Amino acid sequence: MTRILIAEDEPRISSFIEKGLRAEGMSTSVVADGQEAAALAISGEFDLLILDLGLPGLDGFGVLQRIQAERATLPVIILTARDAVEDTVAALSGGADDYMRKPFAFDELLARIRLRLHGTSRAEATILRSGDLTLDIRTRRAMIGQQTAELSSREFALLEMFMRHPDQVLSRQQLLSRVWGFDFDPGSNVVDVYVRYLRTKLGADTIETVRGVGYRLRGSNM
Ligand code: CA
Q1: How far is the CA of 34 from the centre of ligand 1 (A)?
Q2: What is the whole-number distance in angstroms between the Cα of residue 32 and the centre of ligand 1?
Q3: pTM of the model
Q4: Which end of the chain has fewer CB atoms at under 10 Å, N or C?
Q5: Distance from residue 1's CA to the centre of ligand 1 (Å)
Q6: Which strands form 170-171's sheet, in the order they lie side by side?
């Protein structure tokens, strides 16, 4: 089982990450203090570290330094504030492998984690199919039959989420946190708006409304 260490002192964010990773079958530990994070990171108990730069005790840069000195092979993804470009650059040159800017969508973090864990050599399925729809994850191209559908990146992400969970009803809340991120107002109707966009581009009956529950991608009978 993949073991992920989450070093983050904001409980809202760490639990958002933890819930998502556990749902993917990974094991997680959360620490909110930099000293503790560094000790665990070099213990050999974890496969990857998600590291907030602003931590009490020892900041993320300090944690990176300890890792560089004692366990430089550990993949590290840092979490940075939206506008902290210099911090991001400093952390990457200090040994971090990748970064996420807060707020972020969980699926984006998951994609980066997978990339760091398996490297680029892993032949992951990059083509998703359902009925007439084909989605090429690598080239970000969507096709209906032989025709290309022009999707915005958010529309693409939403469709990808549906296609990864065929025949499954996905709630607004699930779609919101997986495609938009934890900072979105749960009362937002953005999911409904984007489902409407997808229906306009892909056909009205592509996505089914399941009243009171959420949405489902229609299978091969479309
Ligand atoms: Ca912090």
Answers
A1: 10
A2: 8
A3: 0.62
A4: N
A5: 27
A6: 170-171, 214-217, 207-210
Domains of the chain: 3-116 (3.40.50.2300), 127-217 (1.10.10.10)
92 C-alpha to ligand 1 centroid (Å)? 18
pLDDT per residue rounded down to tens, the chain (222 residues): 899 999 999 999 999 999 999 988 899 999 999 999 999 999 989 999 999 999 999 999 999 999 988 888 899 999 988 677 888 888 888 889 899 988 899 988 998 999 888 754 444 567 888 888 999 887 888 999 899 999 998 899 999 989 988 778 999 888 888 888 766 677 788 999 999 999 999 999 999 999 988 999 987 544
DSSP 218: -
Ligand 1 centroid–CA 56 distance in Å is 8
